[in-house]
Design goal:
By secondary structure, chain A is of the alpha+beta class. Helix content of chain A is 32%, strand content 24%. Chain B has two domains: 30 residues; 143 residues, L,D-transpeptidase catalytic domain-like. The chains are: A alpha+beta, B alpha+beta.
């Protein structure tokens, strides 16, 4: 066995175990937030705040995203109905208190679309889920960015690269905070780690202007 | 030797996890510290919050479809008919290919063959529909667009039924059943004959169609 593989095998096993337990694709019936502790006033406040945002969105014919950081799941919703769920393997966030209200998608990864050539005899290959990126950035207004990265398609070296990049980003954010250089207007950032397929599904399902609501944890 | 390497790997991995996780938590803690302070757990206040939460949940539930609704997963090419959380029908479908075609003589404008995402409703229900071929159907085959509207009509390619959901998009049948499960259409949603019949029977004009 390769030396690097030997060294990182234990961590790979831990990550694999974490990724083996995804949330089911269909929503649980009934309860909006099954994990909400109704005796926790902060959790209730946050749950009510999210529901108030959802009420505004569900009143219109549209799909929207609910990023539930408490349950670790992204829900594609319409009319308050949970259409599809994408499990989140890991997340980090900066400027959590600012993640209130409704954000609208302003920029998403470009899709390379194949063009039909009427003079050609062969049909053009359609776009499929596998054409979607596994690592990308979504931008929103009010200012918020969401970095999506894949956890399971990179091999050992890819994982080392992704972890180093994440650690570097966190180190920079930490340094900025220690130095007190964060301006009051600085955008919030959410980093989400999803499986490759879920990252591609999210890229596939997002549309320009899509509204997003975030449910924040009340405890670290 | 193997055991020593595994031990070193475990120690390194543990160290790495310890180094990363507390940072994430401290980042979160600092954010929460600056968030609004939690209310004191006063039973009256708590009951008020519980009541508000329940009321909002109830209000949100009012928006959910109370009859059948159609759900289309364009990534996996499935069409479902659901009633509340129950899946009444799970059908393999074909949805938009996502490819593009230049509009001749219109500069850089293009047709984009995507199935639209969002919420729609069934606007029309047709039996034995005829396909009135749009311009792109001729252009993509390198043919001239006919001047006589009658030359656009093609019978028997859409199956026995079609359900329109706006802007020329339909749920309809197909001759190419081997392509079900793939993104091959110009934006319409294709089903096999049996599933199409079920959808036609279960859906009414006004039935919501949610596409993601």
């Amino acid at each position: 066995m390769h030396l690097v593989q030997m060294l990182f095998m234990p961590l790979s096993i831990i990550l694999s175990v974490v990724l083996l337990f995804p949330v089911p694709g269909w929503a649980a019936e009934g309860e909006v937030f099954p994990d909400l502790d109704i005796n926790d006033p902060v959790a209730l406040q946050e749950g009510s705040r999210v529901l108030e945002e959802e009420l505004k969105l569900a009143a219109r014919a549209q799909t929207y995203l609910l990023i539930d950081l408490v349950s670790g799941v992204i829900q594609i919703k319409a009319r308050g109905v949970d259409l599809h769920r994408l499990p989140v393997a890991a997340w980090t966030v900066t400027e959590l208190p600012r993640l209130t209200g409704t954000f609208r998608l302003t920029a998403r990864p470009p899709v390379i679309r194949r063009k039909i050539d009427p003079s050609a005899t062969t049909e053009q290959e359609p776009i499929s889920l596998s054409d979607m990126p596994t690592e990308y950035r979504l931008s929103f207004t009010p200012a918020m960015t969401m970095d999506v990265e894949s956890a399971d398609s990179q091999g050992t070296m890819g994982w080392i690269h992704a972890t180093s990049r994440k650690a570097w980003k966190q180190l920079r954010a930490w340094k900025q905070r220690l130095a007190g250089v964060q301006s009051p207007g600085e955008a919030s950032t959410i980093s989400l780690t999803l499986s490759s397929e879920q990252a591609q599904s999210l890229a596939w399902s997002t549309v320009d202007g899509m509204p997003v609501v975030i449910r924040r944890p009340s405890e670290p | 030797m193997k055991r020593v390497l595994l031990l070193i790997g475990s120690v390194l991995s543990f160290g790495l996890l310890v180094a990363l996780i507390p940072y994430s938590s401290s980042q979160l803690q600092s954010s929460i510290a600056s968030a609004p302070q939690p209310l004191a757990v006063d039973p009256v206040v708590l009951r008020g919050l519980q009541s508000q939460y329940k009321s909002l949940k109830k209000q949100l539930a009012q928006f959910a479809p109370h009859q059948h609704y159609i759900l289309v997963d364009t990534a996996r090419n499935h069409l479902y008919i659901k009633r509340s959380q129950e899946i009444v029908l799970d059908a393999l479908a074909s949805t938009g290919s996502g490819v593009v075609l230049d509009k001749p003589g219109e500069g850089s404008t293009q047709w984009v063959f995507d199935t639209p995402r969002g919420e729609f409703t069934v606007q029309s229900k047709l039996t034995h529909p005829a396909w009135v071929k749009p311009d792109w159907a001729f252009i993509e085959e390198g043919l001239m667009v006919p001047k006589n509207p009658a030359d656009r009509v093609e019978q028997g390619v859409l199956g026995d039924y079609a359900l329109g959901f706006g802007k020329g998009y339909f749920i309809h049948g197909t001759l190419y059943t081997r392509l079900l499960g793939k993104n091959v259409t110009h934006g319409c949603i294709r089903l096999n004959d049996d599933d199409l019949k079920s959808v036609y029977q279960l859906a009414r004009v006004g039935t919501p169609i949610m596409i993601f």
